[in-house]
Amino acid sequence: MQTLQTTPHLPPAVAAETSAQDDAPQRHRSWVPVRSLTSRHRDRLREHLLALEESDRYLRFGYAASDAQIQHYADTLDFERDEVFGIFNRRVELIAMAHLAYAPAPQIEGQPPMAEFGVSVNRAARGRGLGARLFDHAILHARNRRIRKIFVYALSENTAMLKIARNAGAAIERAGSESEAWLTLPPNDLASQVGEIVETQAAEWDYHMKSNAKRLHDILGSCLLDRSNA
């Protein structure tokens, strides 16, 4: 079984949606804001991944990654080369994340530019199509960076992730306990470029609204607590 690399370029088996409850048919039920994450979110990413149970880690990484391995993975994420996306709840907690890893140049000779997709969703947030939403978002960003293929490494038992990829049009190749999904992307166009701009601005607005609401809630809660103790 593959292990986490020192530098997580195209991290192995990172393509695991960690529950079959996160069904792709729900993907268009509602629009969910997705925020681009940077190195300042590293602690939140680490916390999110460490919260995964052993079975979830097995699907996420292809084996039951230890706390130390997860911490190393989070610490060595390259935000300058790759893209990391997150979904936050109303309490501004990171409940789902995706890693779109761009293969370093030169890529495979004779193959179009490609990127690898990996995703994880908190157990309490599953069944809402967040994995599929992040996959759609990653496709949009990859197209606008002239990527022509997205690929997913997943355990064959990870039917949720494979279903998400298949519903997006990916070709699935099975090899025993492991599977690969390959999705060919159309070229970027004006619609994809505008779509990314709109989604980015909407996600930033949503995040700041949630942050301000949480801050106000905390202040009011503190005032009420002080009054009750008076």
Unreliable stretches covering 5 or more consecutive residues = 1-28
**Name given to the CATH homologous superfamily:** Gcn5-related N-acetyltransferase (GNAT)
Helix-strand category: alpha+beta
Percentage of residues assigned to helices: 25-40%
- How many domains? 1
Instruction: Give the distance, in angstroms, between the N- and C-terminal Cα atoms.
Output: 60 Å
CATH topology: Aminopeptidase
Alpha-carbon Rg, integer: 18 Å
What is the CATH C level class, in words?
Alpha Beta
Describe this structure in words.
- This protein is α+β, with helices and mostly antiparallel strands and 230 residues long.
- The chain has a single domain (24-229), classed as Gcn5-related N-acetyltransferase (GNAT) (Aminopeptidase), CATH 3.40.630.
- The protein is 39% helix and 20% strand.
- A 7-stranded mixed β-sheet has the order 1-2-3-4-5-7-6, with helices on both faces.
- The relative contact order is 0.17.
- Mean pLDDT is 84; it is low at 1-28.
Question: In short, what is this structure?
Answer:
It contains 6 helices and 7 strands, in the order βαααβββαβαββα. The chain has helices at 42-50, 54-61, 67-75, 130-144, 159-167, 190-229; strands spanning 35-37, 83-88, 94-102, 114-121, 149-155, 171-175, 178-184.
